[in-house]
Amino acid sequence: MLKDITIGQFFPGNSLLHKLDPRFKIIITGIFIAMLFAAQTFTALIPGVVFMIIGYAASKIPFSLMIKSLKPIIPIIIFTSILNLFFLDGIVIFKLWIIKITYDGVTYTGMMIIRIIALIAGSSLLTYTTSPIALTDAIESLLSPLKKIKFPVHELAMMMSIALRFIPTLIEETDKIMSAQKARGADMESGGLIHRAKALTPILVPLFVSAFSRAMELATAMECRCYRGGEGRTRLKQLSSSARDYLTTSFSLIFLNMVFLLNVYMAG
Amino acid sequence: MTAVKTENLTYTYGIGTPFEKTAVNDVNLEIEQGELVGIIGHTGSGKSTLIQHLNGLLKPTSGRILIDGADIWDKSANRRDVRFKVGLVFQYPEYQIFEDTVEKDIAFGPKNMGLSDDEIKKRVIETAEIVGLSPEILTKSPFELSGGQKRRVAIAGVMAMEPSVLILDEPVAGLDPRGREKILAQIKTYHAKKNATVLLISHSMEDVARYASKILVMNEGSVYCYEDTPIVFSKAEELAKMGLSVPQITKVFLKLKERGFDVRTDIYTIDFAIKKLLEMKN
Amino acid sequence: MSANKEIKENINIKNVSFSYNSDEEKGTPLILNHCNLEIKKGEFIAVLGHNGSGKSTLAKLMNSILIPTDGIVLVDGFDTSDEENLFDIRRRVGMVFQNPDNQIVATIVEEDVAFGLENLGTEPAEMRQRVDEALKAVGMYDYRNHAPHKLSGGQKQRVAIAGIIAMKPECIVLDEPTAMLDPKGREEVMRTIKMLNRDYGITVILITHYMEEAAQCERIVVIDGGKVLMDGTPENVFSEVELLKSIGLDVPQVTELMYLLGKHGYTCDTHIITENDCTDFLAKFLSEKK
After folding, report:
1. Per the domain annotation, does B258 fall within a domain?
2. Residues of A in contact with C95 (CB under 8 A)
3. The whole model's pTM is what?
């Protein structure tokens, strides 16, 4: 069901990862992604994967959740694996008619699968352990230098946080509208592509109508609470960095260095 | 004749997750054709989950549902046909409106049934009349109407399928007293005109007391009781203990009894209360 | 601020008319039609009226969401039509709306409660304290780190109320706050706003369809056709059973019982609006045999 979607969901907690400054978490996530993509060999991928496992251990997020977050990307993994597996040139290790599998193809595909899985699972940790508001605050703060060139940083952050706030509400609503139309005999399961696209109208129209009326009401409610844009606003939760944040970032940089060293060492 | 029957109906959601919960637990019901049943119970008592089983929107974890004697999850059964037979009006049904005219929106259900254009037209006009929408409204956009009118368009959309069982989940929630009265009376009209079985979920005991001939009380996923309205209200004390708000008038008679007066406690409408008071006085 | 100290009225609506279209278009219906209403500090008022009677419009005029087409609305002496007063007014008059989902901005309860204070530029340390106080006042402190969409309707409304009282308003206007709630949620909200009025002295203006809620207030204002039709204590207002029914409103069941007994030729008091008074009356009624 729609309600089972977990990507981008926050799980409140009190772990080390929850306590880190979200700005640093974004930076560390960037470093983590660099670890995965800088690695040129299997061995060089190890630091990235280990770093991710340490992350999960430190976050106290159940491992089963990570598996769950991977489910939606399985088709992507399979599709790109097939492409890489069969179409990369190199030393041929298996050949049948026009299909040939190369040594390079296998290693490349293997590395790519590990990379994608680690990428999704690892970056999910950011959203699992950071409240969407903290996340948007952090993005707002990291982007704040752009304010000088009149980039609407606050507006962007506010839009993101409202979108995040209403995703669960709209998912619930979609479920409800679907049930209501099914109860009127709407047929959404059979027929060709065009028929199915047409069958979406009874769901999309009410959803849009409701989203717009919600937006209007929310705008009024926000104005009533003296909202007037980003100027002069203070925040309940001040972003403050501590030694913990610097230490964790250094720790991640050490891992990134390991990747570079392994790249050189294994190649040599 | 039995219109709706459930046998050991149980529904558990989130099986295998920390959120696992049995929403409906071993429900056995037999609802006679032509009955007007009020369904009451707390939020979370399982009443909304129960009704979504009756037209096949939810599949029971175990147990059976029989509509007019036929198991709706039988291999040969067609669930879409079940939905035409068992009409379900959700809470705040005005959210389901999507067509650009009232007429088209009411016609959506009948169209899905594959009826002829003449028949569809006939049904739209007939149901619009039942819910008190004047013919000139039919060509208007439903989005221009007032909240109460939209609600009636949505209800008409389900009535137009002429279901022999009509289920409504809080059809008058959020309306003003006059709007509530209108819609309840219209539901009663449909009930009488089509000799349909009607199931009405409501938080308002006053409404249920006035309209329902039988009442189903749900509590924590199970059937607490399913009896004729006077019998259910004779248990007013138990209902109040369950935290269900009994009508104010019933509360007054419970208090009179506490003070030692020999009064009946199954009094749930004002007219009945007056009658009894006058009898006692004379 | 000091100049406003003597003013006893919190909100003063003077000869106000309102129409959604510009007044140049002739014949556009007036939602409010020369409406007058004075609300004193610390009052607990219910506003009744059928759908379309203009009661929601009246609420929106009280904190400058809408500006009167004609006439004047004063909040603590501030004219709502003057743009400069906007934040002085909105800080004093908080609004709670019908749909709890559409007024919660943040994804965490306490951050939502802080939203108004953030807009006002409150110092973080003070904000922390006021948010915690507000959450405790509505009994939602234990839920401060929860996601709002997982709360019940009654809880969401209490969070919305906390968000308003954190701003320390003098007055809170609730536009059908219980219409979408179940009986339990309705009771929670009623208990909360009664407490706000009693313990914090906040003026409460409750717009509602539920007569039993109105019966718990000190004063009822009935709006019909864009005008104040009745204004008085619940006992006095509900005693006009026929008038109320003629404009599509209801009275508490006990009042209706009194009214109908009266029609049968007994001397009854239609000022009775509570179960206890009704029980007392009936006890006496049944004891006096003919």
Report:
1. no
2. 221, 224
3. 0.85
